[in-house]
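Troubleshooting log. The previous structure file for this entry was overwritten by mistake, so regenerating from the original sequence record. Sequence copied from the archived sheet and checked twice against the printout by T.R.
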Amino acid sequence: MEEVVIVGAGIAGLATAVALKKVGVRALVLEKSKDLRATGTALGLFPNAWVALDALGVSDKLTALYAPFERGYITDVKTKSIQDVRYPPNNRIGAQPRAVHRKVLLEVLAEELPPNSIRFSSKITSIETQEERHSPICIVTLEDGSIIKSKVVIGCDGVHSIVAHWLGLRPPVYSGRSAVRGLTVFPKGHGYDRSRGIEQFVDVGKRAGFLTLNDKEVYWFFAGKSPPRGMEKGADPQMIQREVMENLAKDFPPVYLDVVKRSDLSSLTWAPLMFRYPWDILFGNLAQSNITVAGDAMHPMTPDLGQGGCSALEDAVVLGRHIGGSISKHGELVARDVGFAIERYAKERRLRAATLITASYLAGWVQQDGSSRLMRFIRDVLFYGLLLARVVSSVAQYDCGKLPSVSSLPSCESESSI
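Regenerated output below.
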């Protein structure tokens, strides 16, 4: 019997476990892989993510490792024109965007959890609910036949979430675009001007870029309307690299192709870009009988505004804040109260998640899906010149709030009593 079971040890799952620990609730995280996964290599975290990380108590560990960036440059491959985009810091805590290693972020979050909080090689096969002593209980069955009972189940199990399917959410859909991501290591230093922030390159139906993580490592990506040839036969890293260099991005600047050429092949990944229709978030079933979802399990979105990981961290803090209010005077979760807390969480996240999905999809569509003069004008003059910085700033100024400490919760005892 567990207080809370979290399915998936990705960003949303680990961050939610940390948030619950902060409010005095221990959670068991079930991860189907053998260890922490880091698909995608790296990610950009905008100010809203750093507000969440600050609430989780881990921001200092990461800001000490990664330098902030204040701007980015977008080059039109055909016309060679360059747009300068500035990314302002968060108004409340002065947080600035940073790019971080995905695995480092996961490790920092995992280090905050008590021993044995993560159970690897644990794939769930089904979820059921039943009443025990007039309170709802969740029953999770694992592939090895073991059964775990819990007062709460939180699905953080990604785009193809079993928990989301149980809730009745419709499957995510293909955006019509796919992305390649990789990491390049320069043993003697890359020599790029890190103050330039994100370097991006756009062409008809294509967008690519790179961002320095430190003095030696560079994260790069390529997004296009058609997948690399041969992907249906298996994502061989060398084949992906060759396809990007010799076909998809052959006309892109030499500085970008050089980064791709030097890639660590073990880091290369290709994936179709999926998203959930925003109306499925607004009107769908995000919570039921003490079961809910967070991160990509709730709101998969295209990466065009860099908000996938950021919003997952927001989810964690909001969940922790609401569930923290369901602790009894004996320091235990009250199953009936948790249901109301989860409903409040879902209500708070609906509009935010639907807005991010919509804005991200439209940002990608404007940047990649048009070749006419009108679309180029909308992209270069209106979107890059007037809207991009404002849109990014608007979504990045979001404040997910703070977590109450255990001592500040009403009549709450220490974590050891749970």
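The longest strand covers residues 173-185. Archived copy saved in two places this time.
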